[in-house]
Amino acid sequence: MAEATADEKDERVLGRRWTVRLDAAGRGTTAVRVSCNRSACPDEALPDAAAGRGAAVAHLRAHLDAASPPRADAYCACRAGGCAAHIDQGDGRGRGRTAEPWRCGGPVVLAVVSDRGGRWWQALECCTRCAAALPRARTVATSAVATSAVGSAPVVGGQAAGGPRAAAVGTPHFSDGRTHTGPPPARAAREVPAPRPAPARRRQRGKIAQRAVPPDLRPVVLRDELIELGNLFRRYQRRTEPDLAVLGDLHERKARAFIAWAQVTGDPELRAEAERAEQSAATVRMQHRHRNGERTEEDEPAVARLLTAPGQWEQARAVLAHVAGHTPLPGAQARLLVLMLTLRTAHSGTGNLVGQDLAGLGLDDPEALAEQLTDCGWLRLPGTASDLLASRPESPTPVTVPSLVPGGGVSAPFTFGKKARAKLSGWGQRVVSDKKLRKRKAPAPVRLLALTLATRTDADGLLGAGDEGLTLESLLRQVPVEPGELADLVDRLTQADWLTDAALTDSHLTGRLTERVLPLTCPLV
């Protein structure tokens, strides 16, 4: 068996590697996207994760079927990717490295690796030792040509292809240049010793925010970042004097790391932790500016919004987009009722309602609409729609939306937690029950338009992200009314002191939400 030093590996050809990933195609949909790191392979869209996994495995198998056998003169592809065996364990200044450097060995193989969550699959050329050190790796092919030394020419017929002085097949070659000239070992020349597993101490472990960082978390850079952040937070707690600038940087790094962790694992609690870290970073930086006498207008926002974090604004838009594509009945009144029921049941698919929740939506016949939703199977009630309308706060009616109940192999359309759901539901209720909308007895389409406009402004209440306003096409997707009815809805919002400077053209709506309703807005960021 030949062993390679770092200098010898640099003289060899880099091993091949194919990586196939499975990612969500967008918010509010179960569709997924299969992508390959090879530029010649186009992305493929699939309707759900099960179909995506099958396509990803088939794509990687096609690469393996078309590929040539493993090349004996290749060095490990995982070295370029920063695997646990090759990664530098030091601090960048020569300290903290392991006592023994990793030595590759054994024939070159094609190994297949995948993550536990079924989000990516990878095939790569590497040595036998590295294949054994990679978690969940499976060898699918082994190089058929032996090499006399790492980086030298293949051995053919007892002599190296490069000349008659090459060593015989099976003669050990060591990294210090010595060649064993004694009798061959008792084992067969082509027998490869069992690969040495990676030392346990190479796997870093750590905790952050009372969470253990999984030692097999991938990518490795994310795992190392989480471990380092946990150590830095604990080191900060041991300081004798606070440094708010350093603490703000730590919270910002934590927010970015937890967002990446949530994307890898799909855990909504990690995303909630990231939002809390973002808020902590903003608070700490504001305190730092105040202590240094650098108070600015940005420190105290002009608007105290009901939904305070950008992540909550995106969640509100995600709910509206989901309802626009999954309302089982036509019309703006059904859309508004489905939206409010979705906000109430988004976390677990169940929630409690009272009659006033439906009576305050400006619906022409809320009882008939509720019966239609139960008849088509979208809504489940323990009794009749009439019982729901008659229920009071002391005895609310439990309702269930089956499509929002997690489990059964179907991924939930939303990932936010129980607290975020309560905030979103409270926000939606505040908008549709605005005192001036109630005073003018605004119908359901007007309230639905008010909800839509509240999520489509900038920080100052100006409609849209730029000066052009909102396209009528995007508005009509959210508020299903005839184009000719939109002008009357805009006038009603203007009269209710919701909208000012409104201008409706054949293609756009421009204007600004009034200062009175700015606390209910979700700015586009």
UniProtKB/TrEMBL annotation:
Residues 199-208 have a biased composition (Basic residues). It comes from the Bacteria. Residues 163-208 are annotated as: Disordered. This is Uncharacterized protein. It comes from Streptomyces hazeniae.
